[in-house]
Amino acid sequence: MGAIQTTRTPGIPNGWFAVAFSRDLQVGEVKRIRYFEQDLVLFRTREGHPKVLDAYCSHLGAHLAEGGRVVGETIRCPFHAWQYDGSGQCVSIPYCKRIPPQARVNGWEVHESNHMIFVWHHAEGKPPYWQVPDMPELHDPEWSEPRVFELEVNVHMQDMAENNCDPVHFQYVHGNMNVGPSEMTYAEEGRFFRMTSSNEHETPMGTFDMTLERDTWGLGLSSVRMLGIPDAGLLMFSSTSPIEAERTVSRWLFTATKNMVDLAGEDFIDGMSKGVMQDVRIWENKIHRAEPVLCEADEYLVEFRKWTKQFYSTPA
């Protein structure tokens, strides 16, 4: 008999995950969202701070996003007007002087940067032990206004993340024969890793020795930089977030130096976005092999799977 190959899907990993683009949440706006297999409410206070709470009021269970509204730095329940601050504590019951100590909902750690709103998820409720990296290009006046791309896929987010460590698929899925050997380096106590590969590329600005630099922080955050053209560059920054164990949303930002955006930036953006669409058909029709049969060409994938284990509270 052959070996049994398990298909157990991993759970929800720990880390920072985007729940919205910043531009999609205005001051005073309330949104119903679902991530980490939980119903949540996202709102922006009158001072401009994004907040995320568990969705259901601790009183009689009304959904705070269904008719709830921002009042100052709080969100007001649509049912009986209980008000919750960004930590989830009830701070006002308009018809009562005393607030029950149990009158609170879970508040989530939120961080806004890189044109996105991020939430920290940890299955055991532990606080953040690393930070969202800053992408200086996204705020540099010499770089183009970032373009956005968003995609929902019926697949576990780890299967999407594994693409970066699977150079062989670039040939057979994307027709890209020019993916050279990569080097993996680790930093930030092992929570960050970088894959770099270099090749000669012809561009509208000439032929250059180009380096593709792919950075990953946890299972949710990654960037891709094209380096090698003097005083010019290209960047893709993305956050991939779990809605359910097998339902994932990925948000991408693209930018290029202004002296390069017309010559090569649009091609870079077009190539990256079309490339991911080629992967969708495979992602949505595959299973997750917890113990796959691997070959000698899968060395990067083996390394990646070992690395991912630190982001799960239960064995993945």
Task: Describe this structure in a few short sentences.
The chain has four helices and 17 strands. With 316 residues, it is mainly β. It folds into two domains: 15-121, Rieske Iron-sulfur Protein, CATH 2.102.10.10; 136-311, Naphthalene 1,2-dioxygenase Alpha Subunit, Chain A, domain 1.
Task: Describe, in plain words, how this protein is organized in 3D.
The protein has 316 residues and is mainly beta. It has 2 domains: 15-121, Rieske [2Fe-2S] iron-sulphur domain (Rieske Iron-sulfur Protein), CATH 2.102.10.10; 136-311, Alpha-Beta Complex (Naphthalene 1,2-dioxygenase Alpha Subunit, Chain A, domain 1). 14% of the residues lie in helices and 35% in strands. The protein has a 7-stranded antiparallel sheet with strand order 11-17-16-15-14-13-12, covered by helices on one side. The radius of gyration is 22 Å and the shape is globular.
